[in-house]
Specification:
alpha+beta, globular, five-stranded mixed β-barrel, 24 strands, eight-stranded mixed β-sheet, 595 residues, 28% helix
Length: 595
Amino acid sequence: MNKYRTHNCSEIGEKEIGKVVHLSGWLHRKRDHGNLLFIDLRDHYGVTQCVIENNSTFFPILERSKPESVIKIIGKVIKRSSETENPDLKTGKIEISVQSVEILSNAKELPLPVFGEQDYPEDIRLKYRFLDLRRDEMHKNIILRSKVISFIRSEMLKLGFLEYQTPILTSSSPEGARDFLVPSRLNPGKFYALPQAPQQFKQLIMVSGFDKYFQIAPCFRDEDARADRSPGEFYQLDLEMSFVEQEDIFKVVEKLMVNLFKHFSSKKILNEKFPRIPYAESMKKYGTDKPDLRNPLIIHEITDLFKREDVKFDIFKKLVKSGSVVRAIITKDTKDKPRSFFDNIDKWAKEQGASGLAYFTIEQDTKIKAKGPVGKFFSEDSLNELMKSCNAEIGDSIFLACGKEKEVEKILSLARDKIAKELGIIDKDQFAFCWIVDYPMYEFDENSKKIIFSHNPFSMPQGNINNLDFKKPLEIKAYQYDIVCNGVELSSGAIRNHIPELMYKLFSVAGYKEKDVNTKFSGMINALSYGAPPHGGIAPGIDRIVMLIAGKENIREVTLFPMNQNAQDLMMQAPSDVDEKQLKELGIKKDIKKN
């Protein structure tokens, strides 16, 4: 028999009444009733209530033990009285009458409580993560993560995929985020890079003749932290398939996501066949390529309205003449909202760095008119045209933004979410997936004043590859796609370019010479030269998937040992200084100027 326990703290029930059991776990909490001391004993599996009388020789031991001490209890299972049963516990119909106690490990005074789910400062939670993870909600999140990964593995195998592992030490990539570099002791002055993703390796697996690959892959990127992105490292479901088109990838991923989210959540999936939204359409209708489709608000293009003679809103009209656009959000039946609602949205927009949001509400007495600060500038005919083009009705309100297209897209994307939350019109019991497709192959970078790749440089362009118009590169679309759920980008993917000659042409548009491609992507370009199948893939983020299923807004709530916003591990005190001897072995000398 195991000397620590005969049962865990969730599996004792009425059938064990009268038996003597051994339990071990953490002292979750104590309740002193004078002549009786009640102990909640907790392990990974659950909680069992134990009770000891004050005449027991072990009473003083438990009385002075601090919460979170690890103890072993031997006792008899007895039935609770009906009025003391706890339906919230699996073991709620019984308790343990303590016969003996052994302290296995004493706990010091706690820097944060484990019992209860009250908020605590993030730096304390991360420094004492091992305590934070004992808390019920955090513990359940990490268990959920494990089960999600196991489910994904099972489903991928059912779909005919095989799991392969790719290298962690590899070469630096000139594209994407900053690399984490690892100095090579055996090759002085040279560095490995930790993979930002197994992108090139998974393509090489396809070139090697394997048909369907997947991996729960660790990825390393030297990026700033966000709520939906951990600094340093994250995990993704990396997959790649040979002899496929875009739709083949979609079928596999949709089936996986529907099965996964149905298995772990009771929330409704809005469309089990995910909508395909072209990138350009998404930017116009939602202001972003990460739209939350639970939000019914749509952005409308109304620039032409401000070319009418009977619209007297001169500020916007002058901007439109200089090339600005005007777009609007319609809120349904908001005529009874107080002025403060609209003013607060306008004030909020200014806090986001915009010039604000103009607004008015459509009303009707003897004629149709606009009520609000800018309503007087619109004639009845112009309002009729606006209502027709935007599907607006009497009683609806209009929020307007004018400026450069990118600026308008940014503020109205944020405003769309802000207004929907204020109105309470987002259904939080839904998962709304979609595909964003038809990304442009290139974009013009305002900083460098050059044409750059907009997405993944290894993607296959759309259209007849023998007849692409490289004189108009910004019109070339690619077989690139993102999968989005509830406004969270889960992944980017693409059908890959497997033709070396085409790759040289595509890279030349972005300023790469043939020798640059051969140098920076030597492994890839060399492999493609020996017969490569058409292939494609995607890599949904594990952390973001679990975050959505768990209903959390911060990725650190579903990650075992995350870093803080400054990419520091407060618990392990990383990054840290290293010994001079280690640096000497690596041929590295620090040259850091102090402030």
